[in-house]
Amino acid sequence: MSIQQNLLQIKSLLPSNVTLVAVSKTKPVEDLMEAYNAGQRIFGENKIQEMTEKWQQMPKDIEWHMIGHVQSNKVKYMVPYVKLIHGVDSLKLLKEINRQAARWRKNINCLLQIHIAEEETKFGLDENELIELLNSDEFKEMSNVKVIGLMGMATFTENQEQIKKEFDNLKSIFDKSKKLKTENCQLNTLSMGMSGDYQLAIDCGSTMVRIGSSIFGSR
Ligand SMILES: *Cc1c(COP(=O)(O)O)cnc(C)c1O
């Protein structure tokens, strides 16, 4: 099937409250344009250099999401155009995003990444670190970032029950921390689910899925 057909089929299966991020990392601009021409306006990339090049070449009504791990020293390069940063996993990084956003007089939306997988390698905060961060005075004083939700990645496994357990865990952390509403924190987005597990993620309460290979083919 073509990129357009893949995209339209996936979209037809998504509930209306679930946002689709088309993960276009490693794919050429022609492929992104095919998705764009089929109506897709939200694209996810995981490398700043690649995102910048594609941003320059693509129409300007696209929302660019940074879905990969972000290094503090790279933040300044994406602040001019990034719409949402999914993988924020420390107060230090949030501080740098706030600092760079202030220089551009912008407000940057962020998701805090929660560690839900068994693998040690996946980035993210645990529940206590999340609560601590959201309650810290340092965070409350940041006026150029807004935390609008949480993001997580399940363990890379075929075991559906394991994945479901991890998604349920993230959803429960999301529901609990929703109560911590402040000026720059209002959790309404739950980014979980990729090509292999997005249907399960939606059943578990996801409101944003990040889908790459099922749209653009394998990488
Ligand atoms: C690559 C990537 C995806 C998309 O993965 P697919 O399996 O191709 O859908 C989603 N989220 C993150 C964080 C990624 O790095």
Q: Determine the CATH superfamily.
A: Alanine racemase
The secondary structure category is: alpha/beta
H and E string: HEHEHEHEHEHHEHEHEH
CATH architecture: Alpha-Beta Barrel
Number of domains: 1
Low-confidence blocks of residues: none
CATH topology title: TIM Barrel
CATH hierarchy class name: Alpha Beta
Modified residues (N6-(pyridoxal phosphate)lysine): 25
Function: Pyridoxal 5'-phosphate (PLP)-binding protein, which is involved in PLP homeostasis.
Family: Belongs to the pyridoxal phosphate-binding protein YggS/PROSC family.
Protein name: Pyridoxal phosphate homeostasis protein
Keywords:
219 residues; alpha/beta; TIM Barrel; 10 helices; globular; binds pyridoxal-5'-phosphate; pyridoxal phosphate binding; PyrdxlP_homeostasis
What report would you give on this structure?
By secondary structure, the chain is an alpha/beta fold. The chain has a single domain, classed as Alpha-Beta Barrel (TIM Barrel), CATH 3.20.20.10. The protein has 10 helices and 8 strands. It has helices at residues 3-13, 29-37, 48-57, 75-78, 91-103, 127-135, 137-140, 160-177, 198-203, 213-216, and strands at 19-23, 42-45, 63-66, 82-88, 108-114, 145-152, 185-191, 208-211. The protein has an 8-stranded parallel β-sheet with strand order 7-6-5-4-3-2-1-8. The model has no long low-confidence stretch (mean pLDDT 96). It binds pyridoxal-5'-phosphate. The site of pyridoxal-5'-phosphate has 14 residues, from strand 8 and helix 10. One of its GO terms (molecular function) is pyridoxal phosphate binding. The modification N6-(pyridoxal phosphate)lysine is found at residue 25. Keywords: Pyridoxal phosphate. Residues 2-218 form the Alanine racemase N-terminal domain.
